[in-house]
Amino acid sequence: MKWNQFTDKDIQILYFLNQARYATTSQLARLFYSDSDKPETAVRRANFTTQRLLKAGLVSHLKRRIGGVRKGSASYVWQITFQGLKLLKSQDDSISLRYKNQYEPSQGHVEHTLAITEIFVETLETVRSSNKLTLETFSFEPNSWRSYQKLSGVGMTLKPDAYLELINHEYEDHYFLEIDRSTESLSRIVNTCKKYIEYYRSGIEQRQKEVFPYVLWIVPDDKRKLAISKAIQKELYNFWELFTVITLDDYQNYIKGGIDELEKSR
Q: Which of 9, 95, 138, 256 has the fewest CB atoms below 10 angstroms from its CB?
C-alpha cells in the first residue's frame, strides 16, 4: 500500500507508537476507538487496524503477550517498525529514524514502558470525561528529560518517566511523573528524588516555566505508598514537599483536583 492509502487514524496510531514505544491492542482501543458502543467492539476495531498495519510492515508485535495467550489479540504489545518511521518521516521531517533492535526487550522494560503508556491512556480518559480539564502537554521519554549542571559543574540529565501539563479551569498543573512498580529499593527511590532536588536548585525549570512541577510518584498499592512516603520524609528533610506519592487507583481523581479531590473520593 502507498502512504496516501492510509487513513488519518492509521497515521495517528503510528505517531503514538513512535512516542510511547509500546502499547497493547487494548490500550490502542481505549485511545483511538473510545467512540465504540462496547469495549469489545473497540478492541476488534483496534485489532483490525493493527493487523492491517502489520501486513503493511509498519508495525510489529512482541512475541511476549501481556495477560497471556487467552487474552487473545488484546494482549499483543505493538511497536512501530523502521518502515513505519520512514512513512512518518515522509510526511514530517522532524521524525527521527532509528533502527529497531531485533532482540526481544526484557520483560521488566516492556512492563515499565506499558505502565507509562497506561498513565497516558488514563490521563486522556480523565480529560475526556471532565468538563474542566484540558491536556496541554504529555511528553514521553526522552522528551521528558531535563539537562542541568550540578553545583560542581558536572553535567547531568534528569530522566522523568513522563512530563505532564494540565489546564484545570484557570490553573495550570505541571507534573514530573515517576512510575514505580515496587522493583526498586527505597534507597534508589531516594537517590532519584535527590536528583530532582539538584535540578530544583538549578532554577532552570523555574526560569523557563515560572513554576517547578510536582514530582508525582505513582505506585501499585498503599503499602508501597506508605514506604516511599516515609523514606522521602525521613531522608529529604526540607525538600520532601516537592514530592507526592499516590497509588495508580488514585491517579485519575488526583489529576482532577489534586489532594482535595483525592480526599473527597475516599
A: 9
